[in-house]
Amino acid sequence: MSGERLSEMARLLDEAWETRTPVAPLSQTHGLSSIEDAYEVQRLFHERRTARGERLLGRKIGLTARAVQRQLGVDQPDFGNLWASRYFPREGSIVEVPREIFLQPRIEGELAFLIGRRLSGPGVSLQEVLAATEAVAPAFEIVDSRIRDWKITITDTIADNASYGGFTLGAWRRSWLSRDLRTLGMLLVKNGQPTAQGAGAAALDHPAAAVAWLANTFGRFGVALEPGDIVLSGSWIPVQPVERGDVCELLLADAEPLVLRFT
Fold it and tell me: pTM for the complete prediction?
């Protein structure tokens, strides 16, 4: 596909982000069918944002849970960029997030990795990821789509920065690196009602395996995970729609609840 056509798709996604007006699926309107082309659109989308001052905090892995793949009709993970303008730090017991900045948000619960040592694929193993990780933390990811009505194929979501919306983090914990993260459980409580639950095995059978997948996939692009990078390793629970006024709590054993409210 021509560079001009790829650039036009990146422009449309950037405009949709800025105006909060979704666009029709690029797979339909522009024939975006190649994963390689989709990642090039994502790169161009990222370049447009960084040219205006956006900062990169790390990476996100999407579509690691089989349940999420079934929900969205795809069959493999993807990755995107964590943009600092949509990081919502905890400054009290509740993280408040303005609903109005999103188009059609949904929420996921997952584990974030803080990379402490460079990881460069191919050949990165799960054990190497754990050894190179400084700490892990519970995380809410807000996924959002610039594609109208979430009518996405995998190329649509890849081009759209893996449907990134925003994120917030709980406390970093180094001690969890010695636990079997596959069996660590997570419960999402929405507006006081238990809504979804899952365990670390939902993310490609082990959250660190998802990070290894990312490092090895990046190796094909000549990119590495660097010290200080935050990596969201993929949701453990099916994504949940959210609206103004919703309060979501993420509960994990031995961790302070991570609470997010959409204002």
Answer: 0.95
